[in-house]
Structures are given as structure tokens and as C-alpha cells.
Automatic annotation (TrEMBL):
It comes from the Bacteria. CDD domains: HTH_XRE. This is Helix-turn-helix transcriptional regulator. Pfam families: HTH_3. It comes from Flaviaesturariibacter amylovorans. Gene3D superfamilies: lambda repressor-like DNA-binding domains.
Amino acid sequence: MDTMETSRTLNHIGRKIVRIRELRGMKQDALARLLGVSQQAVSRLEQSEMVDEERLKAIADALGVTPEAIRQFNEEALFNNIQNNSDTSSNNSIVNYQFNPIDKIVELYERLLQSEREKVEMLQQIIDKK
């Protein structure tokens, strides 16, 4: 793999979105619902090397991260960061990410749960009117 191809692979936004989504334990259809698109649209998005800023912001919001966290996502650095946090003798020179994955997962599930509660409430109102 040449330098240009390596750089392209490392900066492939779609692949970074996939990995962050997977680390969050989120399926494509769940992300699709949050974005208001089809699962197929998310699949195409995840195959895209580049994503426009507006869409990247929406995806970042849905994943509970910043657009910059997606752009700068580096799985190797993340694993090194995790290793450094668990190994008190190691130095802290690895990039410290701006989000705590556990907190963001909890936040995401709370948002999804709230959304489901709102849907149930709307359905209950429809049933009550009949």
C-alpha cells in the first residue's frame, strides 16, 4: 500500500463512522432512525470516503460525539489510550479523546428511550381519541 492509499484509508470518514457506531453498540437501522434516513442510506454513507460538513454534524450528534472526534478518530490511538489508562506506569502522551464512550452510550440510550416514550404517548393519545 503506497503512502497516498494509506492516507486515504486512514482518513476514510465512512469507516470511522462505522467504527464509532460499532463501539457504541449501535446498529445501522438505529443510526438511520436518528438521522431520519433509510438503513441503506446509512450503509452508503459508511462507504463514503468523504461526508459533507452538515451531514457529518448530524451524524456526530446522533453518535454523541463531535464532528472533530469523527475526523480525528484513530482506532490504534484509542486502544493505546485505553491501555495507558489501565496501566499506571505508562506515560500519558497518547491523545486524550474529548468523549467518554460509556457516558455517550448512556446519553444515547437515554435519548432513544425518551424518543420511544414520546411515541408511546402519541399513540396513547390517538387511542384515547377513538
